[in-house]
Amino acid sequence: MTANRACSRVFHLICFLAMCRCERLGKRRTELVHCDGQFIGRQGSCEQGLRCYAPCNIQVSASFCEGVIARFFKSGVCGIPTGDPCQANGEAECRPGTFCAPIVDAGQVDPGDRTCLECHKGLEQSNECIHQAIVDALARWRHRYRNISSETTHETYDAYKSNEDLQFISRASVETIETLQLVAGNFERADRGGSRSGASFFKTKCGTFFLKGFDRLSEFVEMVKFRKEFRQVPGIGTTFVEPLLAFPAFGNYWVITANVEFVFSHLVGNGFLEDKTFDVKPEPLISESRKAFLRHLVEVGFQPGPSERLTTFNIALENDLGFLERHQMCDWSWFIKYYKVEPEFAEQVEAAGANLPWATVGDGQRPWCFAAAREGTLLCFAILDYSLNFETLSWIKRAESKALRDKWKNYTGKFRDFNNCIFNMRPSERELHKMLGLAEQPEGFLAIAKAQQDIEEKFVYRVRVKPRAVDPAVSKIVGGAGDLTKGYRHTTCYVYYKDACQHLFHGDVIKMADGCIFHLNPEAYKKGDAMDSHDEFWLKEALAQKGDYCLGYMVEKCHKMHVDLQKTQVVGEKMMNFNMFRNH
Fold first, then answer.
1. Are 213 and 230 in contact (CB under 8 A)?
2. What integer is the mean pLDDT of 189-199?
């Protein structure tokens, strides 16, 4: 009986009367094997030892009907009757398009109770289907890159054909394939905080590997290209969490990577006292945790000084960014993990220099972790999600990028600037002097109004800023460096300084002749709260540290106020002279 006849009007009517649901076989990924209805319930025309049954009387429904056995037509499909357990390799095999898998109940697998399982197209898959897909992918990898064929390989080839062309599978190291063979059955669903792209996530029970499912072919192509072309810096490594194996399955695409948290824990272990996770991107992209991350840098005083580790990190990062820039990639992010550890352990990490241990997973991943000023604080960095190619963006995506200040154009430059700001959130007075073109080096200090009873007005931070004098003659050259018709141009990092520090202050900034005064928020204290000398001492220490860390923000904000005032005065004088000239 053909697929067209099976879904004839008569069949639909009979199916309706039997309270069943009919679907066209042509829409199914795997064709069903039909048999003569005269042999329903007995050994008949089916192969592989299967028996011929009515569609609703097999363990995995042929989607003809649900709930009610279809008894009104003589045709059937080959399968195993409901309640008759299948065998992985035996007479009671599953029908084509399904496989024999253990029944999972409350997370426990009973090896003695198995059933035929069918995996549909889509990103929502059971753990058993993910296991089967990985096993199939490993078989295809061996056939393509090692010329090793098996019956499983050929069956898999047929299942993954698209438009008569076999979809390819990425390169992978032999070590990766051997390891994945051992853990293929250990993947389980993982939560990734609600991906906006609709991706699906799994990870191994021990946390070593991560699996992401997605629907964009272009992203899959980039992962395959990455495996073929990217090279780490020998002896130094990479900041990437590398894709280890990319393959198609269930009408979508999947990539296995090392679990970045496992890479970090290879250094930190499980003895940390607290941890936080940040996934951040540069301006002008929307990044939900960027502001929280920048504020966290202030809290812990993150400012790594020159070191061998920072040098090797920058070498690896520049190699990675160079690869992404050559391939016109965009939209990746820093995955950053904060760990609170024992101060002695943080000191040991710093003392290790550039010789941090490599995580023995996949092709070898190196944890790039740095200590902050606060005792017992580590921040670890890795690049994630580098699969969007600017050159292949749809016109809708290009319009989106253009509308949002060209957010994906020159993304490498934006990310490089962002990273430089992260690692230099507290520029030195000499750096500020040079960046802003000041007449003198700026300075800042915490001041306390002891007579002030209001705790919100008690603590202020005083900065001294002396800008260069504006030359009125320069404004005659329109577009010149000192053109008074143009607005103040902030430094690249100011937008990040502002997000990190603005919340520490309240009220209007008071402009002084030689600088500015900023009123500091008294942290958890509120108006009317009383403090003893002990509390006041520690609050003063905390505010002094945060004020010093945010010196770059305050100096630049104060500098802008003074420059704007100078320009206003010069323009006012010119207008007055112009009016006097007209009157004469």
1. no
2. 70
Render pLDDT for 267-293 as a digit per residue (tens, 0 to 9). Answer: 888 778 899 999 999 999 999 999 999
What φ, ψ does residue 583 adopt, rounded to 5°? -65, -30
Report the run of H or E that residue 464 belongs to, with start and end.
strand 459-464
DSSP-assigned letters across all residues of 242-290: -EEEEEEETTEEEEEEE-HHHHHHHHHTT--SEEEEEEE--TTS--TTH
Phi, psi of 214 (to 5 degrees): -150, 170
pLDDT in tens, 48-68: 556 666 666 666 555 444 334
Of 49-53, 120-124, 446-450, 543-547, the one with minimum mean pLDDT is: 49-53
- Both tokens of residue 268? 């930190």
Could you give the dihedral angle defined by the CA atoms of residues 226, 228, 230 and 233, in that order, rounded to the nearest 10 degrees?
150
Phi, psi of 69 (to 5 degrees): -70, 130
Q: CB under 8 Å to 528, separation ≥6 — which residues?
A: 455
Give 281-285 contacts, CB < 8 A, sequence gap 24+. Answer: 281/331, 281/332, 281/333, 281/334, 281/415, 281/418, 282/411, 282/414, 282/415, 282/417, 282/418, 283/414, 283/418, 283/495, 283/496, 284/404, 284/405, 284/407, 285/331, 285/404, 285/407
- Helix H or strand E segment including 143: helix 127-146
**Contacts of 157 by beta carbon, 8 Å cutoff, 6+ apart:** 140, 143, 166
Q: What is the mean pLDDT of residues 43-51?
A: 56
What is the rounded (10 degree) CA torsion for 51, 55, 57, 62?
A: 100
Confidence of residue 361 (pLDDT cuts 50, 70, 90): low
Cα gap 483→564, rounded to integer Å: 12
Name the phi and psi angles at 25, rounded to 5. -65, -30
Mean pLDDT of the chain: 78
CB 44 within 8 A of CB 38: yes
Tokens encoding 112:
């003695």
pTM: 0.78
Nearest to 62 by CA among 110, 113, 1: 1
Which amino acid, residue 528? G
pLDDT digits (tens, 9 = 90+) for 308-345: 999 999 999 999 999 999 999 999 999 999 999 999 98
Per-residue DSSP letters for 297-331? HHHHT--PPS-HHHHHHHHHHHHHHHHHHHTTEE-
In angstroms, the CA 335 to CA 365 distance is 14
Residue 62 and residue 77 in contact, taking contact as beta carbons nearer than 8 Å: yes
Residue with structure tokens 């009220």? 507
